[in-house]
Every structure is written in C-alpha cells, then in structure tokens.
Design a protein that fits this description.
Blueprint: E1 3-11, E2 17-24, E3 33-35, H1 37-46, E4 50-54, E5 58-61, E6 68-71, E7 74-78, H2 80-88, H3 96-113, H4 120-130, E8 134-136, H5 140-149, E9 158-170, E10 173-178, H6 180-194
Parallel strand pairs: 1-9
Antiparallel strand pairs: 1-2, 3-8, 4-7, 5-6, 9-10
Helix pairs in contact: 1-2, 2-3, 4-5
Length: 204
C-alpha cells in the first residue's frame, strides 16, 4: 500500500490556506478520520507535546477554558492547549489565511513527533485514550494497522499543490473564489494520485 499526505495551498494575495488530506490508495475509496478539539489536545499531550517555530508573539484566550496566555516568537515546545490555540489564532491582518498556514505548521509537527508512537502497542493505547474524540468510518483494527504502516511517514512526505484564488464579497459575505484553471489542475493532480501516480511537489 502506498501512502502520502497531500495539501492544497490556496494562494490569495500571497497568503496560503493549507488543507491537509490523508490519501490512501490501491484501491480506493478513501476513508476518513476526524478528531475534535479535545482529541487534538489529548493527542498532542499524549505524544509529549510538539516543537513549533512560533511565527510571532501571539496573545489569546482559550475559548474552551477561558485561559489567557501568550506565545512568544521562536521555536518552543507546545502543550496540547497551546498548539490548538496557535493553530486556531486568526486575530491579525491575515485572518483565516494566516490561521490555515499555522494549522499546516502544527500538523507537520504532529506528524514528525508521532513517528515513535506508530507501533501497534502505542497506537492502540493512543486510540483508546482518544476514545469518543475521534470519529472514523474505518474499523478500529484497520485504522491501527494503517497508522503502524505509516511509521516512516514524516512532514517531508507532505506534498503541496498551489491553488490560485482571490477574495470576493457576495451579498456582504466574504468568500475566496478559486481560479477555474488552477482548480482543474488541482482536481487532475488528486485524481492522478488516487490512481497510483507518485505525488510530487509543485512550485507556487
């Protein structure tokens, strides 16, 4: 079985929105795994935290606990609640675009930090701890075995696809509209990957 992580980078005004998609092929269809905010925090804490190079000093309030805290610019170890709030922060001029860039940054850190946990014993224990915070259409045993088969997958295996787009307003609501030609290229790329073609990095 071949595996990869494919991300779609939306590029409006030099900003990037990164959507990470887990791709499993040979054969399709895709299965999915969803994790909620509590599960995300538990995951990060269970693997001992993640090291992230914080882009700039950020101060925010956690919406779940009401906790106020500040993350200072530079590489540092983040706990689950810190990683979640760093990934969710959008209180600057970049808004959602900056937030999605930071989300991809944190996801890549989790991929790298979790490599040592991808054996059947640790995976089973981790999934048991996450419990109802994870929703999937995969059988538990299949999910566990799939994660162990990804033991060597790192952030270097995240392939990026640029998607050109532009901000627009419809009836007073802000949207980001994808460029039609760029969208066709992204769709074609993903279809090729699902058919078994090796993913590749595409320059923005």
């Amino acid at each position: 079985m071949s595996m990869a992580l494919v991300s779609v980078n939306v590029l409006p005004l030099l900003c990037k929105v990164a959507v990470v998609v887990f791709v499993r092929w040979h054969p399709p269809p895709l299965e999915s795994v969803e994790i909620n905010f509590n599960g995300f925090q538990d995951l990060v804490d269970d693997i001992g935290g993640v090291t992230v190079d914080v882009e700039k000093t950020l101060t925010f309030k956690d919406r779940i606990t009401g906790t106020h805290f500040t993350l200072y610019q530079g590489a540092q170890r983040l706990t689950g609640i810190q990683a979640l709030n760093y990934a969710r922060f959008r209180g600057d001029a970049e808004g959602d675009f900056g937030r999605n860039r930071r989300q991809q940054q944190v996801v890549k850190a989790i991929i790298d930090e979790s490599m040592s946990f991808r054996n059947i014993t640790k995976v089973n224990s981790l999934l048991k701890d996450l419990g109802d915070n994870v929703a999937t259409d995969m059988d538990f045993n299949v999910l566990a075995k799939t994660l162990t088969k990804m033991k060597n997958v790192s952030s270097k295996d995240v392939y990026s696809i640029p998607l050109k787009a532009a901000p627009m307003s419809i009836d007073g609501v802000s949207y980001v509209k994808a460029n039609d030609d760029s969208l066709k290229k992204v769709k074609s790329y993903i279809k090729d990957v699902l058919k078994g073609k090796k993913p590749k990095h595409i320059e923005e």
